[in-house]
Amino acid sequence: MTKFSDLNLNPKVLKAVEEAGYETPTPIQAGAIPPALEGRDVLGIAQTGTGKTASFTLPMITLLARGRARARMPRSLVLCPTRELAAQVAENFDTYAKHVKLTKALLIGGVSFKEQDQLIDKGVDVLIATPGRLLDHFERGKLLLTGVQIMVVDEADRMLDMGFIPDIERIFSLTPFTRQTLFFSATMAPEIERITNTFLSAPERIEIARQATTAENIEQGVVMFKASRKDREASEKRKLLRMMIDAEGEKCTNAIIFCNRKTDVDIVAKSLKKYGYDAAPIHGDLDQSQRTRTLDGFREGSLRFLVASDVAARGLDVPSVSHVFNFDVPSHAEDYVHRIGRTGRAGRDGKAMMICVPRDEKNLESIERLVQKEIPRLDNPLKSDRPEAEPEAERAPRPERRSAAKPAAKRVEKPAEQQVEQQIETPAEETRGAAPRDEDRSTSRPPRDTGAPRRRGDRGDRGDRGDKKGNNVVGMGDHMPSFIALSFEERRAG
């Protein structure tokens, strides 16, 4: 069995590795370190969690142990897709280079340019950066890349997903042709293959596992979930997540919960906190200091649940994550491999569980094609928690709602006789002086200018007062307007 002491590393580097508690290299480390120490280009393909970071940090420290950097001209460059991964690489350099006098700088967003400029001006042996911030410094004239001897591209497939490939190609063109290139990726998409063919010179290819495979020590499962109603899907899905966590009990010491959208990350984290779960969000829109505090709390164990977007799927090195919950099925099948790779690290057992709604079933099929196996289906604990549906006959009928787009139902006109009877039953105080509604008119009545026509003899009609005294108004017929009758009454009263 190969040991680190067999890999021709600098004795001071070996001492730091032993102090960190490592004796035996992982397969990717054992395959990549020897050709890297020989100065050859390396193409490393291995799934996440296999120790790729040490595969390039250990040989880089050994090769850079002698020599001195010049101002604004770093001797080596490490490119990472996310701030978290860049920070992790920087921590690895601190761990393994503590007995070697090497300087480093970390160029990431969310940190003051001034502090980074001061480090670069002094000269650094190792420059660790995200592509965007590196080019910002270069375009401001604060950085030269002509002195780069070793260039590392970490998580290249994630660079592709995030749209960094044009930046990577430009950075390659700014570095010397004679540089040594160490290129690492979990998968090899055609675009990644093209870049390696263009910028790597006869690389040593180390492929530890079949592309996009999941570790055998990770137990996987998926719950097929359909909401009782469409407008309840989000809340029921969050309830299902809580029930899945509760079902794991004490086995779930800590967990990362992945969501596809940043807004869902915030909502799920807030919901878990509301129900008493120790949870916090992390995604690209949060301030860097807040992201750092959250990650530190999760690593130290003071935070139990980390709700994350895919920005955290790469670069999180927390060896003891017991569970990964995919609240959403990832839209890119490769992301599933990286997400669940956060558990089961360093040979430990892990568990990954996922919730799949009907619209995500196609994405689930893509994942199963990629990993070349069916993910076991789990029982939905929410089904047993729901009350049984009411029998159709016992359900209370819902009141009909009139849509604004539908015309109102047509009213049935009553015969004139029924309308007259209705008017007779109405107290005179209610009808006197009130304008009758259109639907109370009889079709046999002629139109009038004011008020509703009333028949002689109808109660409540002021014109009938004259009839009681036997003084009919000649010439007005049976449809005399009430205002004319009122004027005659006033004359008689006078």
What does this structure look like?
The protein has a seven-stranded parallel beta sheet with strand order 3-4-2-5-6-1-7, with helices on both faces. Strands 10-11-9-12-13-8-14 form a seven-stranded parallel beta sheet, sandwiched between helices. It has 19 helices and 14 strands. The protein has 494 residues and is α/β, with parallel strands linked by helices. Mean pLDDT is 80; it is low at 387-397 and 401-470. It has three domains: 4-207, Rossmann fold (3-Layer(aba) Sandwich); 218-385, P-loop containing nucleotide triphosphate hydrolases (Rossmann fold, 3-Layer(aba) Sandwich), CATH 3.40.50.300; 416-428 and 437-493, no CATH class.
Strand content: 5-15%
Strand elements, count: 14
Q: Helical amount among residues, as a percent range?
A: 25-40%
Q: Describe the global form.
A: globular
EC number: 3.6.4.13
Keywords: ATP-binding, Cytoplasm, Helicase, Hydrolase, Nucleotide-binding
Protein name: DEAD-box ATP-dependent RNA helicase RhpA
Catalytic activity: ATP + H2O = ADP + phosphate + H(+)
